[in-house]
Amino acid sequence: GNDSLCCMSVLPYCPPVNTDRPTPRQEACSVAFEHMLRHTYHLYESEEEMQRREEVLANLSVIIRDWIRSLAQRKDVSYGDGGGRIFTFGSYRLGVHGPNADIDTLCVAPNFVEREDFFSSLHTRLATNPRVTELQPVREAHVPVMKMYFAGVQIDLLFAKLSESVIPQDFDILDKKHVRNVDEKSVLSLNGCRVTDQILKLVPNIDAFRTTLRAIKLWAKRRGVYSNVMGYFGGVSWAILVAFVCQLYPNACSHTLMAKFFKVCTEWHWNERLPIMLTRIDDSDPSVPVWNPEKNHRDRQHLMPIITPAYPAMNSTHNVCESTARVLKEEFRRAYERVCRDIENNDMRLQAVPSREEVEMVWQPLFEPFPFFTSFKHYMQIDIIADTESSLRTWAGYCESKLRTLVLNLEQVPDVEIHPWPSSFSHTVQRTRHVPVPNKPDERMSAEVKVFATSFFFGLKFASLPRDPRSGNQSINLATPVSRFITQINHWAEKKEDMEICIMHVTRKNLPSFVPLGGPKRKVTEVEANVAQSPSAVSNGTATPTSVAPVAPTVPPAVPPPSVSLCPVVWC
Predict the structure, then answer these.
(1) pTM attached to this predicted model
(2) CA distance 52 to 63
C-alpha cells in the first residue's frame, strides 16, 4: 500500500515502482549512513550556526523594507505596509544546507521598484553596511544576482518585481497569478522559491529525501559535477532528481534510496532526451511559455532535461552540453557499477544488521574525490585577473557565467574531448603597472606588482590528431574557438582597464603549484620555460600562434616522440 502518497496535495507524474517498507537491516543501515554524513563528512550545522543564519535573514529583511520605503518616498508612492518581502529557497529552504553553505534569497518587490534600483540604490546601501563584505553584483547572469557575505554568512540575493503595488504579509508565492504580467528575469527569480516549495509538497518522505539529497550533493561536489553555470547539474536539478527517485520508492529509507538513485540515473533514457518530471506540466495559459519540446525548437535541443515542478515549467538543466552530459553519465555509471549495484544485491540477500564501520566502508568508494589534476595529459588554464579583489570579484563573476560558451566553442573542434572542472583557484600573478615614484607623487614609473587572479581548468583529451607530413608532429589548433570567446568577453560593457583574461595550454607536468598535485614534477627545460612565459595574445580577436614544447615520449626513444601544439599557447 502506498500510504505516503495519500496525503499529498499534488500527485506525482510517475506511479511508484515499489512501495515496500524498509527491512530492519535497511533501517539500521540508514541510521549508520546518516551517522556517517553527520560525523565523518560533517554535513550538518550546529544550533549556534542555525541561529546566526536566522539573525542574518532578519537583518537583511529590515534593510530591504527600509530600502523600499525610501524608494517609495523618493518616487512619491503610497504603499502602506506592503513593502518588500524576503524568501529563501535552495538548500536552506529544503533543510539540507551544511556548515558555511550559502543562503539563496529572493527579494520580492512591488511594481514601483525597478531592477535598476536593486543594482544601484540597494547595492549602495549594502556596500556601505559594515556587516556586508565581498559584495558582487552579477547582472549578466541568466538569473541576475547580488552575491555577498552578511556577518560572515554567504548570501545570494535575487530580485523579482511583481505587477501588484502591495506585497501583503500573507503573500502566497505558489499562486500562479504572481508570474503573470512580470518580466522574464522576475519569472526566473520567482521560480527558485516556487520550485523549492513545490518539491517539498511532492516528496512522500521528507526525512529520507533530505538525508539522500545531502549525500548526493556531497557526491556531486566531490566528483566535480555540481555546477549549473559550468554546464553540470545545479542544486535545484539534484533536488528534483532525488525527489523523483523518492516518488518511485515512496517508503524506502535513505540507504536504499541512494542505491536506487544511481540505478535510475544509469538506466534512464537520457539519449532519448526523456525528461525527469515530478508532476504534469501545467500549460493552461497559452500566454505564459512553458517547457514544450513539441512546440519549441530550443527545448528539443536540451540533452538531459529535468523539469521544474512549479508553474511555469522550465528545464533546470538547460546549460548541460555534450561534454558535461558525457561526464555526468560516466559518473552515474561508475557510482552504480562500483558501489550501488552490490548494495542492492546485499539488501536482497543479507539479513544481518551491519555495524556503522561496515556501512562506512561500503559507501566510502562512492565519495572518493575525482582526481582531476592527474586524469589528463593536457589542460586548458583560464586565468581571470584584476588589480583589486573587488574588481576581480566582479570580473570573475561575469567570466564564469560565460565559460560554458567556451566549452561550446571547443566542442566544434573535431576529436577534442573537454572536461570542465567547476572549482576555481585564487592566487596572485605579476603584472607591469605604472605606479607613483617614491617621494615624487606626480611622477610615474613602470614596476612589477602583484595582482589578483582566479583560475579555472578544463581537462583535454584528443581522440586522433592530424600528423604534419614534414615534421611528423601531431598538432591541433584551438585558436579560433578561443579567440571567438575572448572577443566576446572583452566586449563586456562594464569591463575596466585592469581586467584581463588569459587562456593557455598546460601539460600535467607543468600544472601550477596552486592546484592540488600541481607544481613542477621535474626540472623544466629552458625551451619550456620560454614557452610558459610567452606573451602571445589575442588583440582585437586575432590570435598569434605559438608552438608548445613536446609532450613526454610515450613510445620507445628510437621513434620520434609525438608533440601536441595547442595554438596559441597564451591568449589574453
Answers:
(1) 0.85
(2) 17
